[in-house]
Amino acid sequence: MPAILTADGVGKSYGFGSARMPIIEGLTLSIAKGEFVSLVGPSGCGKTTLLMCLSGLLAPSDGAVSFKGQVVDQPPIGLSVVFQDYSRSLLPWKTNLDNVLFGMRRVQGMDARAKRARAEEILAAVGLTGFGGHYPWQVSGGMQQRVAIARGIASQSELLLLDEPLAAVDAQTRADMQDLLLDLAKRFDQTCVLVTHDVEEAVYMADRVLVLGPRPTRVVREIVVDLPKPRDQISTREAPAFLRARHEVMELIRSMRQGKALS
Predict the structure, then answer these.
(1) Which H or E run includes 154?
(2) Of 209, 160, 155, which Cα lies nearest the Cα of 180?
(3) Which residues, 6+ apart, have CB-to-CB distance to 95 below 8 Å?
(4) Which of 15, 63, 76, 231 could form a disulfide with 9 if both were Cys (CB 3.0 to 4.6 A apart)?
(5) Tens-place pLDDT, residues 74-83
(6) pTM of model > 0.70
(7) What share of the chain is helix, strand, coil (3-state, %, to 5)?
(8) For the segment 171-188, what is each residue's pLDDT rounded down to a tens digit?
């Protein structure tokens, strides 16, 4: 499949002169259309900074990011971000339905009635039928994150960047949301890049896991997850291929935490 997103020698630093702090350095990656790719690495390595550079919300200090062959210098149409802190990304004075419609403001070729029908369809797809008229503060955290995900999908984005979107929900909701995201990605033909601290989540959801090194970060290992889809929370996690990939990722991260050279 052709690449929908590439990073070529991307670097990101803060500060100047002797106070300059490199966060990312010489990072290169390629995401194929239709893939689900997870990004993992040691705490503080720069995963979120990288996601912001990939989205156009931060400008790289070096190198370039391209989306569908065009250099990214601002958030492009066709790319959406779902943030970890859904309580801040949703507009509390707008209903859930209006929050989704807000994400569709740049969608072309649809009148107001068609946009509303599309928004209601996607709210139904994330299990929120009947909650469109509620405000975010009137529903649970897991439901708020579903609204945020619905907004990203409704924007007709081809690429969804997910910044630890499930970190703040309970374990059962997290498992349900993992399966929901995989189902939605297939149903709406989306490419997804997931940043997560949870190694098991990274392996369970991904076609490939990209392991990032310590600062200044770069991709140190690509691990192909050879597991069939659809995934299952029990059988997939018990499969030998899942356990092998999980072990490899965890061993890499532990080695980096201990300052060991990577083989």
Answers:
(1) helix 141-154
(2) 160
(3) 132, 133, 134, 135
(4) 63
(5) 999 889 998 8
(6) yes
(7) 40, 25, 40
(8) 888 898 899 899 988 988
